[in-house]
Amino acid sequence: MRAVVLLAWLAASAAGADVRFEHVVIDREFWGDCKAIGDLNGDRLADLVLANRDWLIWYPAPEWNRVVITRDASNFTTDMELGDVDADGDLDVVVPDGSAGILRWYENPMPAGDPSSDPWAPHLIGVHNEHAHDLELADVDGDGRLDVVTRPKGSHLCLGTRIGRCMEAYDVRVPRRRRPRDRRP
C-alpha cells in the first residue's frame, strides 16, 4: 500500500541512547516522489509537502489535513525545494514539472492571504527541455536572492539566476568521471 508516512524522531539523549522513530500514516490515499519539509503557514511547525504525477499537496502540522496547492496537467518529477523565492518572509514551493523540463515556483499566498484556502500562483522559472531530476536552491552568485540549480537526466547541470524575475540559464557541462584503472600488481 502506498501512503504518506511521517517518521518522527523521538527524543534520544546526546549520550548515545537508541534513536527511535514513530510510524505515523498521514494519508492512506496519496503518495509522491517529491518531498519537502518546512513551515509554510508561519506557525513554527514543520509541515510536509508532497507531489506526484498530478498533485502538489501540503500537509500542515500537527493535524496533517490535506491541502491541494495545485493539480497539474503534466507530472511533477523527482525533487522539490522550499524557499522564500519572492523575499516576502514565507516559504514558496519550487518544483520541476514534466518531461519537458518545465521549472515552476508556486507563490505562498502569505503574508496577505491564507495558504490553506487562497490560491498558490504558479510562476514559470524556465525550461531546459529535459526531465528535471535534481533541484537545489541557494544564493549561488551572492546577490542576496535565491538561485536554482537543476540536473536533468544526463551529465550536466543547469544554473538559473535571478529566480522569480528572469531566467539566465547556463549549461555547466560536467565531464563524466572515468573509472580508475585496475592497478593490481
What does this protein structure show overall?
- The protein is mostly beta strands and 185 residues long.
- Helix content is 0%, strand content 44%.
- It contains no helices and 14 strands.
- Strands 3-4-5-6 form a 4-stranded antiparallel sheet, with no helix packed on it. Strands 7-8-9-10 form a 4-stranded antiparallel sheet, with no helix packed on it.
- β11 and β12 form a beta hairpin.
- The radius of gyration is 19 Å and the shape is globular.
- The relative contact order is 0.12.
Q: Compute the number of helices.
A: 0
Q: Which percent bin holds the helix content?
A: under 10%
Q: What is the helix/strand order?
A: EEEEEEEEEEEEEE
Rg from alpha-carbon coordinates: 19 Å
- Structural class category: mainly beta
For this entry, give a set of tags.
single chain, 185 residues, mainly beta, four-stranded antiparallel sheet, 44% strand, globular
List the helices and strands and how they pair.
Elements (H helix, E strand, L loop, with lengths): L3 E7 L9 E8 L6 E5 L8 E5 L3 E5 L7 E5 L9 E3 L8 E6 L4 E6 L13 E7 L4 E7 L8 E6 L3 E6 L6 E6 L12
Antiparallel strand pairs: 1-2, 3-4, 4-5, 5-6, 7-8, 8-9, 9-10, 11-12, 12-13, 13-14
Write a brief structural summary:
The N and C termini lie far apart (52 Å). 0% of the residues lie in helices and 44% in strands.
